[in-house]
Amino acid sequence: MPKGPFFIAIISAVGMAVAGAELWLVAAILLLWFGSLWLIGTSGETEQDAYVPTHDVTDIAAAFLEPVDAPLLLVDANRIVSANETARLELGAHVVGQDVRVALRHPAAVALLNAEPQGRDNGVQATLIQGLTSSRSLFEMRVRSIDARYRLIQLTDRSREADISRAHTDFVANASHELRTPLASIIGYVETLRDDDGRVDVAKRNRFLDTVLREAQRMRSLVEDLMSLSRIEAEKHQVPADKIDLSSTAQAIAKDVAAVHGDHRIRFNIETPHSFVLGDHAQIDQLIRNLVDNGLKYGAPDEAVTVSVQPVGDSVMLIVQDKGAGIEPDHLPHLTRRFYRTDPGRSQAAGGTGLGLAIVKHIVERHRGTLDITSVVNEGTCVSVRFPALHEAL
Questions:
Q1: Spatial distance between the Cα atoms of 214 and 208, rounded to a whole number of angstroms
Q2: Per-residue pLDDT tens for 301-351?
Q3: DSSP 182-213
Q4: In contact, 49 and 27? CB cutoff 8 Å
Q5: Number of CB atoms found within 10 A of residue 43's CB
Q6: Pick from 60, 75, 81, 55: which is nearest to 154 by CA?
Q7: Which one of 124, 135, 148, 292 is most buried, counting C-beta atoms within 10 A?
Q8: Following CA atoms 135, 139, 141, 142 in sequence, which dihedral angle do they give, to the nearest 10 degrees?
Q9: What whole-number distance in Å separates Cα of residue 44 and Cα of residue 38?
């Protein structure tokens, strides 16, 4: 215990006595001062003497790593001594205690772990690992050297980014193919008509021109659907706020479509005259038109397409049902994919672009609804869309 404070106390007491203070008062203050200094000194020594580290460094590191969302591994030499919860979920709890090269099982990861640290930029090195947790997974692995003994490995999941990039590539390839086919047909017929030297009779010329017109209209429909899909995807995070009467809207649009195909082709089953939802007028219009148009194209030509609107709990259900050839069960999970066709020849003959149900799916997602498609071969197909109901008038 330092002696300086006691000397200060004694000098202060002498000063008080010289100044004329009562001796008993000087003695009492001196005693109180000595006691306080003794208590402070002994408590400090006790606290200091009582401090003994009770945790290993790996335990402390684990406490810091555990709440982090990214998979993190603490490696001692090449042995995994700690893995946070996210890493254990991705790789399995058994990796703790394993050789990290065995746990990751990837040539690029092993090569990075065996490589000498490059420079002193915190000793950080990185590589990409394909197929770490599944055949389609992609992780970025970053290795940070802490000291000569410990290294921290961070795994960042890039699978979603890779899937999006792959989807964009597939989309461009499919769109190019869809546009190339009618374009090649148009070019071929136009070249024939230009170089015929009068050898093509009027009837054949008109047939060629009809084909050119049909293929050009097909290209226009495809471009319009592509632009529509792009707009819908751009707005998918914006919650629509228009008050829409789904019952009256469905009737009006279905009657408009029936005017082209005949009133006998549409049957209505509207349980309530008014069923309100929050939505985007243009997109709800497009959704209903796509579903009714699909029912008319692929349903039996002598059977009506039924359009129903009915309340179901806190939702409003729009149902479009046709009676036709139906769809094989294997095709159902893929119907909302872009350019997916169960029968390409029949779809193109009917004027379909392969984007109708993809557009429907994205509209439903933006409106916080659910889409369900059921079908029975040789009986028909039923498409139902459930929207959250709006119970209060806006």
A1: 10
A2: 888 899 999 998 889 999 999 998 888 998 998 888 888 877 766 655 655
A3: HHHHHHHHHHHHHT-TT-S-HHHHHHHHHHHH
A4: no
A5: 10
A6: 75
A7: 292
A8: 180
A9: 10
